[in-house]
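Cont'd.
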Amino acid sequence: MSTAKRGKVRVENGRYRLDGQFHFPYPNDPIRNEHGELMGVTNPRDLTHVHMYGGEAPFFEGLSQGKLLGTRCDNSDCEANGSIFIPFRIHCPDCLVKNNIVDMTDTARKGATVHTFMITERTGAFNTLPKPIRFVNVEFESVPTILMGYLSVGEPEIGMKVVPIFNTSKPSYTILDLSWVPEGTDESDIPKGFTFQ
Amino acid sequence: MIKFSEKQLKIPQMQRPVFLVTGGMSKFGRAMPEKRTEELVIDSFVEAAEFIGKTPAELKEYIHSCYYGHFADHFGDQLLGEAVIHDRLGLDPLGNVGIKTGGATGGSTMWEAFKAVASGYSDCVLAMGWERMDEVPTDEGNNYIASAADKDWETPLGHIYTGYYAVMAQKYWQVFGKEEESFRRTMAEIAVKNRGYARMNPHAQGPMDITVEDVLNSPVVAYPLRALDCCLMSVGASCAILCDEKTAYELTDEPLLVYVSAGSHTLRVADRRDMDIPLLPNESPDQYKDLGERFPGGDRYPGFTGFLAARMAAYYGYRMAGIVDPTEDLDLVELHDAFTISDIQSYEDIGIRPYGEGRTYVESGDCYHTNPHTGEPGKLPSNLCGGLIGCMHAVGATGIMQTVEVGQHIWGRWAEMHEDQSKWDRFGRTKPEDWTNLQVEGAKRGLAISHAGVGSHVTATVLVHPEHQLERNES
């Protein structure tokens, strides 16, 4: 099925504006057993879901611009005051006051380490990452949480120093636009389309 | 939260005792093209009715409200599937509700059913759970399961839940397992044990007579986890009937006291913040002071090595049921062995062993029906049905199936429900020539743990024979 007509969405005045086709119908096929008896039918479908990032949109926009954004609770009445959250949290999980956005790109470049990792050949349907996937969970200085991502160069080890790279040339505007490589990796070795900043 | 108030730590107080009267389950399999979900649900309900000598119609007359566990609308391709099942069971116009908490759906269904009786809203309730995971190819099934991770921050990363889970396994393996070959063999021993016990269970989908070497030679899924370390993907249903005391004794002479508690933690393991370890009744404040010295990296709690939700479910549940030391006070457990390594992690979270020492529960032989080192009964046998690795993980049904299995031991009727040749024949399965009765002799108390995601929801269901009730513990 060609995607030429696949639907696009924009938002104008707080309303969705849809253009193109959002679902493509296919006929059912019968499912029969070895005796030719009807057991069921296939229910094929092809549809596009429209998903909004809301208050997290700056994070995903930031990745496309080579920035790693986190958020910080600045509520002086909150025990979590000063806590920086990556993954980005729109609201503080303790006081629920809206957090402020902080640029953590330099922090990540200077002091990110692999807390744990996993290498797997298995993926679910619709995976777009090259296999095997090297999951890395990365911790940063002064950040209490540990971000999940994937390593694009080398083999992961616990305690390994890593730096972020960003898909800035053809961003997908998803978490896949952020990846990690060992500290000291040459720019010529990182995946096509990715940059250090 | 990383600190808990007294109000949050209050031990749940029921308005009246709650009893498990009966339960049942269908056959479990990887695929069941010959049956609709409602047929499996009815199979389990009929078994529950027959277990107490009732017809389904007679049992239905007692039911006042219904609680339905079904994890994934995606898999069923049917929104509001609970209404379909409720109608097919002929239970309209009774009130009913669907419950979804990922892998803990079955346990959470028990939790809701328990509270409905404890509160006085209903005198008799149905807790029914099911899943059918066979109507999409396995890789699409993995895609669906990965949708239970954070869709923006995790799911696009391979669409493979095992990967999100396995990073914790890797951390535990390195911190507490110290990457020792002996630890890896202990993990494999769990898979051998559970698949071996599944051989005695006609309902079980994954019985295997294997060795540690077979597990160690099976394909790597996500190192150190191999294919035989992982749970099954299943189709099937299970149900339980919970009642107040008066109704329970109308239905049976042998109802069991039931207590259900629940805990939670962040959906994204990435969001975990460090905190003090909430202590169980058999632990002391000083116990973990040197944990980081004994296991470098192990002092970061819950970190990537513990499941706070399981700890909290046990925190509430043990005190509700008066359990101080689970190894001493319980006679058997059914644990959520999604992976062999998470099974070991659970031993610590629920206090069978202290943090860092989970492996000794297996290595001592305590977790076996018959301790392989002594030939004596295991101190606290686990997963005698085969668990998620050997029996099934039809997600919405799992926590209920575990509870029913524990109940059958306390009722002393495990052999009756697993030995009958006609059941093996009906399920199209061959009963092994060396079939062994795994009844835990004299069982009077047991526990089932139901667990979701990377620890987002966990429930603890404790069953107690009424003549062996313990004193509630508020401390």
